[in-house]
Amino acid sequence: MTGQTAPVRRYGSPRPFRAKPRPADYVTGRPTLYEPEYCQTVVEFMGEGYSLTAFAGEIRVSKDAVYEWIDRWPEFRHAVKIARAARLRALERKLLTTKIGVGVTAAIFALKNADPDEWKDLYQNETNINVNIQQLSDDQLMAIAAAGKPALTIEHDPTPEAQHTDER
Q1: How far apart are the first and last CA of the chain?
Q2: Degrees (nearest 5) of the Cα angle 34, 79, 66?
């Protein structure tokens, strides 16, 4: 076999890849686990006081999957809004019917986390200032300052000067 060249081996398809046309409603990727029945299920489940994460655990999907369904399915998004309100109702009912201190504390904690806008600790500090500082004299300002707190004086104890001795 002198003078002959070995055939070149090519791997793969000799033609370039061309994607086949697909219908407009064709979906790629993993199919969703969402079922329309979950709309009613989430309202009932959260109506017992459980969270959306607990609902995800109940139906054996990830919390992220449930949040994706909220973004993708408007009917599920609406059901979750109703379910959150139903959850608050259940937690408030628990708070109003519980007589033991630990149960009351747990219900308040759950409500603060479930609806922080309505169940937050409010601390109100109201200060009314009805004096225009530009209208007061220096003596009046000093009198106001003195009336508010006892005068604080800071005594300055200068460092004694180094004594120079002539050591000659």
Answers
A1: 114
A2: 40
Q: How far apart are CA 80 and CA 32, in angstroms?
A: 18
Contact, 33 vs 65, CB < 8 A? yes
Spatial distance between the Cα atoms of 144 and 148, rounded to a whole number of angstroms: 6
Compute the distance between CA of residue 89 and CA of residue 112 in angstroms, rounded to an integer: 13
- In this predicted structure, what is the pLDDT of residue 82? 96
DSSP codes of every residue in 90-158: HHHHHHHH--SHHHHHHHHHHHHHH-TTTS-------------GGGS-HHHHHHHHHHHS--------P
Instruction: Give me the chain's average pLDDT, please.
Output: 79
3 phi-psi bin (left φ>0, alpha ψ -120 to 50, beta other): left
Look at residue 54 and give its three-state secondary structure: helix
What are the structural domain ranges in the chain?
38-114
Number of other residues whose CB lies within 10 A of the CB of residue 52: 18
What pTM was estimated for this model as a whole? Answer: 0.53
| Tokens linked to 40 | 């009613």
